Amino acid sequence: MVASLFGRPIYIAETMEQMYLIGIGSLFLVVLTGLFSGQGFAIAFANELSDFGAKDYLGRIMSLAIVRELGPTLTGLMMAARVASGITAEIGAMKSSNQLDAMRSFGIDPIKKIAAPRLITLIVMVPAMTVICDAVAIFGAWLIAIFHAHISSTMYWAAIRERLVFGNIFIGLVKPVVFSLVIAFISCYKGFTSEGGTKGVGQATTDSVVMSSITILITNFVFTKFFFPMLRGYL
Amino acid sequence: MIEFRNIDFGYDEKLVLRDVSFDIDPTESVVIMGPSGSGKSTVLRLILGLECPQRGEIRIDGRNICVMKEKDKQELRKSIGMVFQDGALFDSRTVGENVGYYLIEHTGLSWQEIERRVREMLGFVGLDASEIIDKLPEELSGGMQRRVAIGRALLSTDPKIMLYDEPTTGLDPQSTENVLTLINKLTRERSISTVVVTHQIADALGVAKRFIVIHEGEVAFDGDFVGLRDCRDDRVRNFLGPFRASMDLVAEKKFMNGV
Ligand SMILES: Nc1ncnc2c1ncn2[C@@H]1O[C@H](COP(=O)(O)OP(=O)(O)OP(=O)(O)O)[C@@H](O)[C@H]1O
Ligand SMILES: [Mg+2]
User: Which end of chain B is less packed: N or C, by CB atoms within 10 Å?
Assistant: First the structure.
């Protein structure tokens, strides 16, 4: 399966279609997620920090938390919920109505035709959505900073920038790439191996979302705890 | 050329086909008949290499399809057309894209040219092209979908083998006639091997001179019309049932029509 993902032919039209469906389709969800979790976290942190008279640190904490942890994980989970379910359901439905076999009968490899365009799209779109989520969350936290915590705007942005260093950005971009692989592989695998008609497709879809969400959370922890500390000297 | 050599096959432990052997020459048409669940569709799936037998050998044009690499299988399948029993139309593509699928995927033809051929093919299977070409398959009736599926299988550049899984089930007499004519025309003009799975005895007589009856995964009969009519095998007699009495009548009519 993995072997036939790569190599010719590459279906450009399908990939473009997926870019549009997955990318544009997820934008609204990701913006909402970023905005409200950014604000939520900012309120909680701002309240805690002001007890210590350290409100000015809000920007630093938000910058770090959003770019390294919140942005990638939330976007990953949202994409898992929205995209993994869609991919599994679509492939499963095609399988149960013999469309995959029909495709094969025309000499087309369904893995190249269906899985590869979705994989490529996710590798591009999950990081892109993460960046958008990050930006919106930081903006949301800024709203809280000025209107709720009454921190000066300049102070907030200076603090944000202080933690927006290469290392953090790098970590914040490596994670979504890994998450995109998790979502693509699990959702396609669950779709292609679904069995037992409509009920089977439903089950596979549920499994696909649950498995990719859990895998994302665990991978995120493993990366934060074990992999990135190993890179510390280089970043 | 299709060769089945002592095929045993099951989707799981239970065997669906047992010791099935037959040869189908290029240019030959064969009808496969048998009760529901006897393994007819499975035979077609095996010819396409969608499944591989537990025992035995399947050769298409002399090449054992089961030991072939996936890439070569794909290449081989381009020369095999298949009409699936349930149509298996691509439900998120329009009728036009379905019928033109082969041309879209495997030729560099312009969409204008493909559309021209799609319209021609839709007319050929008795459908009003301008009305349905941009519709989705689900907007069509069952019989219309079936004809779209047939059109899709037929519209490839150069098939060497055509497989039809119950192509006339659910069609009105006129469409049935059209489809059968189409199958015959293609078999004769392009000299290809044709395998038709059907329950309709009358249709069977119209498209082939050789009949294979499968019963619970075994070949119960393989021969011509006279042999089938006079067959003493209980499995075959039971399957033909009431039809046996009318077979002479049907045959007469067909032969009078010059088929
Ligand atoms: N995907 C599958 N998984 C498991 N068993 C299957 C599968 N497809 C078919 N079978 C079994 O294989 C046997 C033969 O099925 P097949 O579809 O070849 O029958 P058929 O002769 O085409 O019947 P019909 O005339 O009803 O179409 C049946 O007993 C069926 O239960
Ligand atoms: Mg069948």
Answer: C
Residue B187 to chain A, least CA–CA distance (Å): 19
The total of other beta-carbon atoms located within 10 Å of residue B185's CB is 12
Residues 6+ apart with CB under 8 A from A75: A30, A33, A34, A126, A129, A130, A133, A176, A179
**pLDDT tens digits for B199-228?**
888 888 888 889 999 999 999 999 998 888
CB of residue B50 inside a 6 A radius of ligand 1? no
Whether B122 is in a domain gets the answer yes
Tens of pLDDT, residue by residue over A44-71, are 999 888 888 888 888 888 998 999 999 9
* Cβ–Cβ gap A107/B77 under 8 Å: yes
Query: Would residue B35 count as lying in a domain?
Result: no
| Selected residue of B68, B74, B78 to mutate for chain A interface (largest A Cβ count, 10 A) | B74
Q: Is residue B228 part of a domain?
A: no
Record: contact B78-A109, CB cut-off 8 A: no
Q: How does pLDDT run across B74-116, given as a tens digit for each residue?
A: 999 999 999 999 889 999 999 999 999 999 999 889 999 999 9
Tally of domains within chain B:
1
Rounded Cα distance between B123 and B32, Å, is 28
| Domain interval for residue B122 | 89-157
Strands, E, within B29-125: which ranges?
29-33, 55-60, 63-64, 80-83
**CB contact set of A18 (below 8 Å; sequence gap of 6+):** A117, A118, A120, A121
The alpha carbon dihedral of B11, B15, B17, B19 has a sign of positive
Rg of chain A over all Cα atoms, to the nearest angstrom: 20
Which ligand is in closest contact with the Cα of A197? 1
What is this structure's pTM? Answer: 0.88
Q: Is the ipTM of this complex over 0.95?
A: no
